[in-house]
Amino acid sequence: STHDIFVENMVEYVDVCRKMIDAGHEIMYVSKPHLEGTKKFIEEVAKLPSTLHYMKNINVWITITTDNNELIKVWEPHAPSYEERVECLKLLQCAGFRTSIMCEPYLSDPFSFIPKLAKYVKGVIAVGVMNYTSTFQFDEDDDVNVEMKEYLSKLYTPDNINVLIEKMMKFKNVHVLPKKELTKFVLKHYK
To answer: Which residues sit opposite 62 in a β-bridge?
Structure first.
C-alpha cells in the first residue's frame, strides 16, 4: 500500500497544489509522512513566489494512530514509525504550515501521546474510533488474530471511550468523534 506522496513526484504535486490554490481552493494534505518526503515538500513550497500565501492555504494533517510501532507494523504496514511522523509534524509546524493530527482510528490510548504533540498543532486534533470492530473476520487459528481481536475488544469498550472523551476534553483543539462523523467535521472545520 502507499502511505504518502513520494519525493519522486513532489515537484509535480506542489505544482498541482499551486494551480488549485491559484484557482481559489484550499489544499488538505493528509499523510503518514516520511521525513525525506516532508523535507522535499517544504523545500518545494518554499520555492513558490508568495510562499506565505500558499502555505496558509495548505492544511497539513499528519495521521498518527498510535505511539506503538509494533501496532503500526500490524495495522499500517510499510508506514513510517511514530517517531518519524512526529519529526515530520515538528518540521512542518516549524516551517509555518497549519498542522493538524488525524488520530483515526486510534490503535492505542491516544492520551498516551496526544498531550505531548498538542504543542506542534496549529489546527485541530481529530480522534476517531474504529468502526465495525465486532464484525471483523478473524482467523481463529491464527494466534495474532485472536490476540488482536481481544486487544480491540478491550480498547473500544464504551467505558474506555467515555474515559478517553473526558480526558481529551481538557484540550481545546481536540475533537473525539465517531468515524462516520469525522469526515463531515473536517470538511466543515476548513470551509
So the answer is: 31, 101
Q: pTM of the full predicted structure?
A: 0.84
| Sheet containing strand 98-103, strands side by side | 27-31, 58-63, 98-103, 125-128, 174-177
Instruction: Dump pLDDT digits (tens) for 139-152.
Output: 666 666 777 777 88
Residue-wise pLDDT tens digits, 9-32: 899 999 999 999 999 999 999 999
> Which string of b and e fits 60-83 if b means at least 16 CB within 10 Å?
bbbbbbbbbeebbeeebeebbebe
